[in-house]
Write a structure and sequence with these properties.
The chain is built from 25 helices and five strands. The chain is mainly α. It has two domains: 252 residues, no CATH class; 210 residues, Tetratricopeptide repeat domain (Serine Threonine Protein Phosphatase 5, Tetratricopeptide repeat). Helix 4 packs across helix 6 and helix 18 runs parallel beside helix 20.
Length: 476
């Protein structure tokens, strides 16, 4: 959605659905100048809280972990100087990805369905990282400041609408707005898109990935949109129009790179199968599709289809067949973490949490502090009604990942089962902070305070946290 994002930055509409009542600074007037990196980060955190509050996120530690590692691999080979990135995975089957100021990268899970290789997925992500590294947000503000005053509240509201409600509403808002210098805005947008393509290709090459994947992905998207119209056009294409010249430019840039054959990535194909298996409405039909493809394609694709079959069979409570397939996968890939978690989840779903816990504990001895394994371990402890053991896993995780809203959700549940009511309120407060609901966060801490009045250290910590949240609220 980068092109729509840039149009919004120029102030082409000021949507008040969310913006009303927000006391945010104005940027882009004659005195503000170019926004600093720290200002971008502040804006990005505001945006992320609003996205979390308004868009359904996909709380899946395996997919999240994969995307974080992939994006950090790309970022370490990009032109980004500030690599404090935050990845939000949105539960939406449409093709879309976006970058927001302050290192926020949003990805619809549907992107896994369109990118057939890890290189094609990486091409989209590298393009979005280029918008961040080239500071297109700040540069567009500098360009547009003579024409309009940009309200950050209106800006973020428009981005949120486009990211969560779909292209039709976003484009309708654009059409109904008072456009200032629209032709110039479109020109700047095309320029920024071309620059992001070019820098993204450099990133792919430096990350030892296929630089031609940008052109391949554009060709695939163009074919996907050829017979689409209206609401059926992929969201990404509404804001990233693919033209023949854009494809040609991508190919031209890579003509000096040697042609290489890249083997398929097992990790990526597993994530594609997982994204489909855990989000599909009819698990039985999807299981049949996976089963029909067990003997098609190469070994990597066959393995991915078998993994997807295990996940859908588990959802359908067909535990015996699921165990048969996961046993084959575990024999061939004994150290594969998604396979070990899938095996444990079969036993957990079959009401045999002790077996699941043994499997996960064994894996954690080999992969200490692994994020997906740790989350699965904590979830299984909760299912086994062992909240104190779950807390021993979750508390260190929350220290290392303080902005992981799902961890705070699990912590609140664990504290509740452990009958630690102050802990419930503190965990809920952090969850509400991450979703931008500061009033509810302060209220939760207010509930906790009288319960710990005889504990000076805990009471002081809660009071300090309340002050911190008030500061956040006043600055938002």
């Amino acid at each position: 959605m980068a092109q729509l994002f840039l149009l919004l930055i120029l102030g082409l509409f000021n949507l008040q659905v969310w913006a009303e009542g927000q006391d945010l600074p104005s940027l882009g007037d004659s005195t503000s100048g170019i926004v600093s990196l720290e200002q971008e980060r502040l804006i990005g955190q505001q945006f992320l809280r609003s996205i979390r509050a308004r868009a359904p996120t996909l709380d899946d530690a395996i997919l999240q972990d994969y995307l974080e590692h992939l994006i950090y691999r790309l970022a370490s080979n990009s032109q980004l100087t500030d690599r404090r990135l935050e990845v939000v995975l949105i539960k939406n089957a449409s093709l879309n990805a976006f970058a927001a100021p302050g290192g926020i990268v949003g990805i619809h899970h549907g992107l896994f369905f369109y990118g057939e290789t890890e290189h094609e997925m990486s091409a989209i992500l590298s393009h979005e990282l280029a918008h961040l590294s080239q500071r297109h947000f700040a540069r567009q503000l500098a360009t547009g400041k003579k024409n309009t005053v940009i309200s950050v509240a209106g800006l973020l509201a428009g981005i949120i609408l486009a990211a969560t409600a779909g292209g039709e509403l976003g484009m309708a808002a654009l059409a109904g707005s008072q456009a200032i210098g629209q032709n110039q805005a479109l020109k700047y947008s095309r320029d920024r898109e071309a620059e992001a393509d070019r820098i993204g290709i450099y990133t792919l090459a430096d990350a030892e990935m296929d630089p031609r994947a940008m052109a391949y992905m554009f060709e695939r998207l163009q074919r996907a949109s050829r017979y689409s119209s209206g609401n059926r056009i992929p969201e990404f294409l509404r804001t990233h129009p693919v033209t023949k010249s854009r494809i040609a430019d991508s190919y031209n840039q890579t003509r000096n790179y040697p042609k290489e054959t890249f083997p398929p990535s097992l990790d990526y194909q597993l994530m594609r199968a997982r994204a489909r298996a855990i989000t599909v409405t009819n698990a039985s039909e999807q299981a049949a599709r996976f089963a029909s493809k067990l003997h098609l394609g190469g070994e990597v694709q066959k393995t991915a289809n078998q993994y997807g079959l295990v996940l859908t069979l588990t959802r359908e409570l067909d535990f015996d067949t699921a165990r048969m397939h996961i046993a084959r996968l575990r024999k061939e890939y004994p150290l594969n973490i998604p396979f070990r978690i899938a095996e444990a989840q079969i036993y957990k779903a079959a009401q045999q949490p002790e077996i699941a816990l043994d499997l996960l504990e064994e894996s954690l001895e080999l992969s200490i502090n692994n994020y997906p394994l740790s989350v699965a371990y904590a979830e299984t402890f909760l299912d086994a009604r062992k909240p104190h053991a779950a807390l021993e896993v979750l508390i260190p995780l929350s220290v290392n990942r303080p902005r992981d809203e799902y961890l705070w959700y699990l912590l609140a549940e664990a504290y509740g089962l452990a009958n630690n009511i102050p802990g419930v309120h503190e965990a809920r407060a952090e969850f509400f902070v991450l979703n931008g609901n500061f009033d509810q966060a302060i209220k939760q801490l207010g509930y906790a305070l009288p319960l710990v009045r005889h504990n000076f250290q805990q009471s002081a910590r809660i009071k300090q946290r309340m002050e911190d949240i008030w500061t956040l609220k006043d600055g938002s």
